[in-house]
Amino acid sequence: MNIHEYQAKELLAKFGVAVPKGIPAMSVEEAVAAAKQLPGPLYVVKAQIHAGGRGKGKFKELGPDAKGGVRLAKSLAEVEAHAREMLGNTLVTVQTGEAGKQVNRLYITDGVDIGKEFYLALLVDRATSRIAVVASTEGGMNIEDVAHETPEKIHTVTIDPATGLMPHHGRVVAKALGLSGDLARQAQAILAGLYAAFLGTDAEQIEINPLAVCPTPEGNKLYVLDAKVGFDGNAMFRHKDLLELRDTTEEDPAELEASEFDLAYIKLDGNIGCMVNGAGLAMATMDIIKLNGEFPANFLDVGGGASKEKVTAAFKIILKDPAVKGILVNIFGGIMKCDIIADGIVAAAKEVNLSVPLVVRLEGTNVQQGKDILANSGLPIVPANDLGDAAKKIVAEVRAVA
After folding, report:
1. With CB atoms counted within 10 Å of each terminal CB, which end of the chain scores lower, N or C?
2. For residues 122 and 198, is the Cβ–Cβ distance under 8 A?
């Protein structure tokens, strides 16, 4: 589960992380009122969508010469003008794809001078089963570009869960960022706050880009100027307060519907819909479709104990994608029985008035009963003997009707 930047900053501030003052706004009037509460005279108006690259993004409705989703304002009038242009319009960034995302929320923050920008992130390192701290002096840039072009500028430190964050971790990170003296101590304090927030919220990712040195009358200060936070969805039952931060308007409608039926669904760009039980089998199914020259339209794992209702819901979700020209069902009946799945497939195909080719491969418990149900259904379901056979048949069927 992801949250907006303003929510992330408010959350991190509770753990002692230094962030500039900012106020969210849902309307032009709220944006102006928020700016009036800030010191000024410099403000930052930031579009709030679940995607990076907002500053370099473009609004579909405003033309190629319009400014992006992060803008400086030197007066209340400019805040109002920026808010009017952003709210309700569609921001396209490198992460949204061509469809973009509609901006429904803004974040008005206090403008600060920036002396130097850094990158800092905490992630789950699955290879070591530890939290990894990733630091770079190249803040304000796409970290993927830095990793590709100058990988030596990215430093990673893993934290042993048995000991937790130790003072030497903070010193290593400060050194990696080239900080010393008071700034090094500030960096260590921010890292401690981020680590506490990571554990305390069951986070999967906390990304700070940029972490900036900002000159102030009291001396140089380190501030978190942008934050991206994502949580482990499986742990949200422990965090009812965090669930309240969820903005469902930022989520794909099909993926949101799938979550209501406990289906793992992710939309992709291909034309063959997939319904599989088990994440590994789903990945293999997508791979073999590509091996045969076509592309999967989705990842969809119905899980180990799917019912007729769940299978029907899965079919409906797949068919809501107009790009789908055929469906491949690949089921291994371990916990799940093939005859129950077959009943669900037949019921779903009849209910949705299936109009695209359907290839089904069943294997496992009660497989013959399942195949008999499909064969006697009166529906044009194409049976497959194995995964390779299934992939070849669905590709052939799709190309035959193209």
Report:
1. C
2. yes
CA dist., res. 302 & res. 276, Å (int):
6
Q: Which candidate, 244, 131, 135, 125, places its Cα nearest to that of 198?
A: 131
What are the distances in angstroms from CA 67 to CA 56, 62, 83, 91? 8, 9, 12, 11
- 55 in a labelled binding site: yes
Q: Considering Cα of 144, then 147, then 148, then 153, what sign does the dihedral take?
A: positive
Q: Is 219 annotated as a binding residue?
A: no
Q: Both tokens of residue 29?
A: 């009037």
Which residues are catalytic, by number? 119, 207
Residues 6+ apart with CB under 8 A from 260: none
Q: What is the pTM of this model?
A: 0.80
Gap between the Cα atoms of 187 and 118, Å rounded: 11
Domains defined for the chain, CATH in brackets: 21-110 (3.30.1490.20), 116-243 (3.30.470.20), 253-401 (3.40.50.261)
Q: Where are the alpha helices (DSSP H) in 73-142?
A: 76-86
Q: How far apart are CA 145 and CA 200, in angstroms?
A: 31
Would the annotation count 2 as a binding residue?
no
